Amino acid sequence: KKTYKCTECEYSTVSEVRYEDHRKKSHSSDKIFSCHLCDFTCSWSKKFNQHMLVHYYGPPYQCEHEGCNYSSDTIKSVLVHRVRHTDERPYPCDQCDMRFRTRSNLCAHRKCHQGEKPWKCPVCEMSFATKSTLSQHSVRHSDDRPYLCDKCGFGTKFQSHLIAHKRIHTGRCQFPQCSYFAPKQSQLKSHMRTHLGIRKFTCEECDKSFVEKSHLVRHQKIHLEEKPYSCSECGYSSTRKDKLKEH
């Protein structure tokens, strides 16, 4: 039988289908592994791990995040652990726009596209493809907030929200592909709520929710049919000043 050998790693198989699947999953054209300490990029995790030995001393290898004492005899374990402290999601799904911190999470996610959802929430009966996603969902039914900010005491149910929150103390939003910066902490907090989906101001007339109270007040004028901003050149009027300027 013919053996298919990968030209970028040590993988080999007698199945052409498995070979193509390996190439697609492990060596896509997108260079998904980027070194945070230099400009190195690659599409193969083993090559990436070998490169990172240049920057880490060991064994044992120590997590470089401030206040973290985690260490391991393998560089792979430290790098897998390290993403807990960051927003990095180097593993993209080839069927949707979602990205993941680990390959195992990506593999688990792929079950969603296959229609498999064997894990059911006992509270609301929503179904999930994996036990881990069920566990993540279940915290929504709890009041516990185990992830605490060491600078201000902010608490949240999700580690990703805590990571995002800590950027408030630097003045810069570092959500992926967001360059927003605010000199005032209150402004940055308001901006962060848009990423986190926090809309605590709800209209009593139509149940539409808003991030800011001012946005709710502006919206409520629609129900009151108030249009205080009028054009001096014609009969146009609007509930919003910015819409009048556009007009």
Automatic annotation (TrEMBL):
**Recorded GO MF terms:** DNA-binding transcription activator activity, RNA polymerase II-specific; RNA polymerase II cis-regulatory region sequence-specific DNA binding; zinc ion binding
Alphabetized, the UniProt keywords read: DNA-binding, Metal-binding, Nucleus, Repeat, Transcription, Transcription regulation, Zinc, Zinc-finger
Output the InterPro entries linked to this UniProt entry: Znf_C2H2_sf (IPR036236), Znf_C2H2_type (IPR013087)
Q: Which SMART domains match?
A: ZnF_C2H2 (SM00355)
Q: Name one Pfam family in it.
A: zf-C2H2
Q: Does the keyword Repeat apply?
A: yes
- List each copy of the C2H2-type domain by range: 4-32, 61-90, 91-118, 119-146, 147-174, 171-200, 201-228, 229-247
Q: Name one GO cellular component term.
A: nucleus
Look up the coiled coil feature and give its residue ranges: none
* Cell location: Nucleus
Q: Record's family?
A: Belongs to the krueppel C2H2-type zinc-finger protein family.
Q: Return the PANTHER family for the record.
A: C2H2-TYPE DOMAIN-CONTAINING PROTEIN (PTHR24393:SF158), ZINC FINGER PROTEIN (PTHR24393)
The name of this protein is C2H2-type domain-containing protein
Q: What is the originating organism of this protein?
A: Lottia gigantea (Giant owl limpet)
